[in-house]
Amino acid sequence: MPYTKRRRLVTSAVAVALGATTLAACGSDSGDGGTGSGPVSLTYWTWAPGMDKVVDLWNKGPGKKERITVTVKKQASGDTLVTKILTAHKAGKAPDLVQAEYQALPTLVSNDALADISDTVGDAEDEFAEGVWQQTTLGTDAVYAVPQDIGPMMFYYREDLFEKYGLDVPATWEEFAETARELKKKAPDKDLTTFSAGDSGLFAGLAQQAGAKWWTTEGQKWKVGIDDAATRKVADFWGGLVKEGAIDDQPMYTPAWNKALNTGKQIAWVSAVWAPGTLTTAAPDTKGKWAMAPLPQWSADENRTGSWGGSSTAVTTDSKHRDAAAKFAAWLNTDREALNALAREGGIYPAATGAQTSGAFQEPPAYFSNQADFYTQAAEIAETTAPSAWGPNVNVAYTSFKDAFGAATKNKSDFGAALKKMHDDTVADLEKQGFEVAR
Question: Does domain 3-150+308-370 have CATH number 3.40.50.2000?
Answer without folding.
Answer: no
